[in-house]
Design a protein that fits this description.
One of its GO terms (biological process) is cellulose catabolic process. Its main location: secreted. Keywords: Carbohydrate metabolism, Cellulose degradation, Copper, Disulfide bond, Metal-binding, Monooxygenase, Oxidoreductase, Polysaccharide degradation, Secreted, Signal. With 307 residues, the chain is mainly beta. The protein has a single domain, classed as Coagulation Factor XIII, Chain A, domain 1 (Distorted Sandwich), CATH 2.70.50. 10% of the residues lie in helices and 29% in strands. The chain has four helices and 18 strands. A hairpin with a 2-residue loop joins strand 8 and strand 9. The longest helix has 15 residues. The termini are far apart.
């Protein structure tokens, strides 16, 4: 094999090793299990979106409804977990420095149009990039659900990697900012009063003229960096963060199978799990609310139980 081919293959492998995707969600500290292609609209791989003119900027390249929807209430804490290849493994390469943001939109929009409302942004603070903080905390970023009106919503966490963003993708497709995002399906079941205000359209807001998307990471003052998408909305709760999963509480999220492709809706009608019974884990689709006196505790990717 020619040396040049070997170098190219090694470079490709190194780049792939650095990538990341959202693979799971915690609600009030309770692991909802691996959500890939179940409640997360997962792409086929962990490659970044770089073409800002693409529809994929909204929900990545595989934006289609998936079978499950997670139920939450206003005030619940959602944690989104990024990992490179598998849960518990590497988060993202330390070279991929940049910002972390989170948006919400009505599910009915399918992510298209001026519908995305920013709930969180973190870039460079106290000498540290948000991605560095993300790595330190196991790939987990949290958001408190605003007091939204009942309905179905897409939540969209986003990592903006700036290590190659000195040159725009439309100038040199080998370079460009790297966006890592997925859309996760939620249903707000509480009777909140907050309607989503007008949001941004990624195809119009995320452009090659935006200095938050074309930025020289190595030749610019990190403190001058401003993420794209405008300011955080006033509807956002005051305590989003990148950090560890809190202890599981009693406000436990529930999964509901969405009516996709004629599948029946799934509803536990308030069913609870007895002490020591299973309340979560990958492929689990039963009740997730523990009976009074117990809380749902994470054991591993496949199993959580009421203790």
């Amino acid at each position: 094999m020619k040396f040049s081919v070997i170098v190219a293959l090694l470079a490709s492998a190194s780049a792939a090793y650095a990538h990341t995707v959202v693979r799971a969600v915690f609600i009030n500290g309770v692991d909802q299990g691996n959500g890939e292609n179940t409640y997360i609209r997962s792409p086929p791989n962990n490659n970044p979106v770089k073409d800002l003119a693409s529809d994929a900027v909204a929900c990545n390249v595989n934006n289609r409804a998936v079978p499950k929807t997670l139920e939450v209430s206003g005030g619940d804490v959602i944690i989104f977990e990024y990992t490179h290849e598998r849960r518990g493994g590497q988060v993202i390469s330390p070279t991929h420095k940049g910002a972390v943001q989170l948006y919400v939109a009505p599910t009915s929009s399918n992510g298209q149009g001026a519908v995305w409302v920013k709930l969180h942004q973190e870039a460079y603070t106290n000498g540290q990039w948000a991605t560095e903080k993300l790595i330190q905390n196991g790939g987990r970023v949290s958001i408190t659900v605003p007091n939204l009106k009942a309905g179905e919503y897409l939540f969209r966490p986003e990592v903006i990697a700036l290590h190659e963003s000195d040159t725009a993708y439309n100038v040199n497709p080998a370079r460009g900012v790297q966006l890592y995002m997925e859309c996760i399906q939620f249903k707000v079941v509480s009777s909140g009063s907050v309607s989503l205000p007008a949001g941004i359209d990624f195809k119009k807001s995320y452009t090659y003229a935006d200095k938050g998307l074309v930025f020289n990471l190595y030749g610019s003052d990190a403190g001058s960096y401003v993420p794209p998408g405008g300011p955080v909305s006033p509807i956002a709760a005051s305590n989003p963060d990148i950090g560890p999963v809190p202890s599981a509480g009693r406000r436990v999220g529930k999964q509901r199978i969405a009516n996709v492709g004629g599948q029946p809706e799934y509803n536990h009608n308030g069913a609870t799990v007895a002490q020591f019974g299973q309340c979560g884990g990958r492929s689990y689709s039963g009740p997730t609310r523990c009976a009074s006196g117990s809380v749902c505790k994470f054991s591993n990717e496949w199993y959580s139980s009421c203790v």
